[in-house]
Write a structure and sequence with these properties.
Blueprint (H helix, E strand, L loop, with lengths): L1 E5 L3 H12 L3 E5 L3 H8 L10 H10 L3 E4 L2 H5 L4 E4 L14 H13 L6 E5 L7 H15 L9 E5 L9 H6 L4 E4 L3 H11 L9 E4 L1 H32 L3 H9 L20 H14 L5 H14 L2 H8 L8 E5 L14 H11 L3 E5 L4 H8 L4 E2 L12 E4 L11 H7 L4 E4 L6 H7 L2 E3 L8
Helix pairs in contact: 1-3, 5-6, 9-11, 9-12, 11-12
The chain binds nicotinamide-adenine-dinucleotide.
Length: 446
């Protein structure tokens, strides 16, 4: 099948590459000329495990093409996938300008007798599929095209991939949600996704609105799970209980499940923060006060800086002039994505207090440099960051931080002090090694 993907960011590049991997010819369109140039010269623009291998193979085979021209991109495509940004606008609701403008442009290009399905993969509020349809029709009507309705269908097909394991998620999705009332589109999407669900994971068909809301509901629920555990962690610190024990005790109940119960310094990323905000805004617009979401957002903002008062108190209100090593900048491991990363907020707060920060992240340093430049210094590796630092702060749970050489750490740090925002280490181990160790929802060691 010929497919066009409009927007070649995290979702667009992963989807496009994975659809090419199953034999489709995919043209990826992006307005960012630099990005298209880089991709066309065989360079992957994001870090995502497994992506490069698929990218190289399909690019070489001519199944993966990049262009800045929407017209060229969609000319031969039966399916057009929108993977465009939907950032929060001024009031927190999803800004649909990218999606709706592209819809107008598509309407200017559709041709008589050339039926296409427009799939919306961006995360969008309920009713967006209808707005996309209206905009495409508007352009078609302006061109005086008759029977414009029959020329296309719009499908809501939210994306559930997780950054860091995006390729794996895309190739073997837990489920595929397809929102459409068109039998023709349903058949086409069934064929498109068949290679991805061979193990029997469900393709769930529903109406467009339900599909749109499913995505927000899933993300908001996961964010709620995280914030709930972070509130339990707050109680643990006050009662002297251990949130890790509670997590294990809770998680072995099938109804609760083991995943997303880790407490820490909050969620970040390009999805949870904006999607929770957008759902809350949508609810307000529908005259409903979604109280839980407000609490989830509030808890998360506080949680990002949860370790700061502990640090200030450790340094006896004299943190200015201290040098802190920071392990982890990405909002989570296995990605270079730093959007809404807790580390960035911590950097802001600490540097404003006169703290010097030397950071290390395996993948995200380039992106941070582009955003904040020399506000902090960047280390060559995780140990270099520790040299002469007054303490280590851990913000991202990269695997390589989990079993470090503690003796080397002790010899490099000015004193053996760790503030761990991701609860990576066992308390008994820290005790044995003689670290001062503060984490989230667990007792202070040392
Ligand atoms: P992104 O910012 O990484 O990529 C968007 C791309 O669209 C950029 O490359 C940008 O240059 C391009 N673009 C903007 N306007 C364009 C236009 N007019 N024509 C062509 N290209 C254009 O965004 P993303 O993370 O891939 O997210 C895209 C959508 O998918 C969002 O709605 C997001 O909420 C949703 N989503 C993201 C994830 C994720 O993990 N990142 C997961 C599921 C869903």
């Amino acid at each position: 099948m010929n497919i066009a993907v409009i927007g070649t960011g995290y979702v667009g590049l992963v989807s496009g590459t994975c659809f090419a991997e199953t034999g489709n010819v995919v043209t990826c369109v992006d307005i960012d000329e630099q990005k298209v140039k880089k991709l066309s010269s065989g360079k992957v623009t994001i870090y995502e495990p497994g992506l490069e291998k698929f990218f190289m193979r399909n690019e070489k085979e001519g199944r993966l093409i990049f262009t800045t021209s929407l017209e060229n991109g969609i000319r031969d495509a039966r399916i057009i996938i929108l993977a465009l940004p939907t950032p929060p606008d001024g009031d927190g609701s999803a800004d649909l300008k990218y999606v709706l403008n592209v819809a107008l442009d598509i309407g200017k290009l559709l041709k008589k007798g050339d039926y296409k399905v427009i799939i919306n993969k961006s995360t969008v509020p309920v009713g967006t599929a209808e707005k996309v349809r209206t905009n495409i029709l508007k352009s078609l009507h302006e061109r005086g095209i008759e029977n414009a309705d029959a020329l296309f269908d719009v499908v809501s097909n939210p994306e559930f991939l997780r950054e860091g394991v995006a390729v794996e998620d895309f190739m073997k999705p837990n489920r595929v949600v397809i929102g459409t009332s068109s039998g023709k589109a349903k058949k086409l999407l069934g064929e498109l996704y068949a290679p991805f669900v061979r193990q029997g994971n469900p393709v769930i068909y529903m109406d467009e609105k339900s599909a749109e809301l499913t995505k927000y509901a899933a993300n908001a629920f996961l964010a709620t799970k995280i914030s709930f555990m972070n509130e339990i962690a707050q109680l643990c610190e006050r009662f002297g209980a251990d949130v890790d024990m509670i997590r294990k005790g809770m998680g072995s109940d099938d109804r609760i499940g083991k995943r997303f119960l880790f407490s820490g310094i909050g969620y970040g990323g390009s999805c949870f923060p904006k999607d929770v905000k957008a759902l809350s805004k949508s609810a307000q617009q529908a005259d409903y006060d979604f109280k839980i979401l407000e609490a989830v957002m509030g808890v998360n903002e506080n949680q990002k800086v949860h370790l700061l008062p502990k640090m200030i108190s450790y340094f006896k209100n004299n943190i200015s002039g201290k040098k802190i090593a920071l392990w982890g900048l990405a909002f989570k491991p296995n990605t270079d994505d730093i959007r809404e990363a807790p580390a960035l907020k911590i950097i802001d707060e600490l540097t404003a207090k006169g703290v010097t920060i030397i950071a290390y992240d395996p993948e995200a340093m380039e992106n941070v440099k582009n955003e904040i430049g020399d506000k902090i210094t960047y280390a060559q590796n995780q140990y270099d960051a520790l040299e002469d630092a007054d303490a280590l702060l851990i913000a991202t749970e990269w695997s390589e931080f989990r079993t470090p050489d503690f003796n080397k750490m002790k010899s490099l740090l000015k004193s053996p002090v760790i503030f761990d925002g991701r609860n990576l280490f066992e308390l008994y181990q820290m005790e044995e090694l003689g670290f001062h160790y503060e984490s989230v929802g667990r007792r202070v060691v040392g």
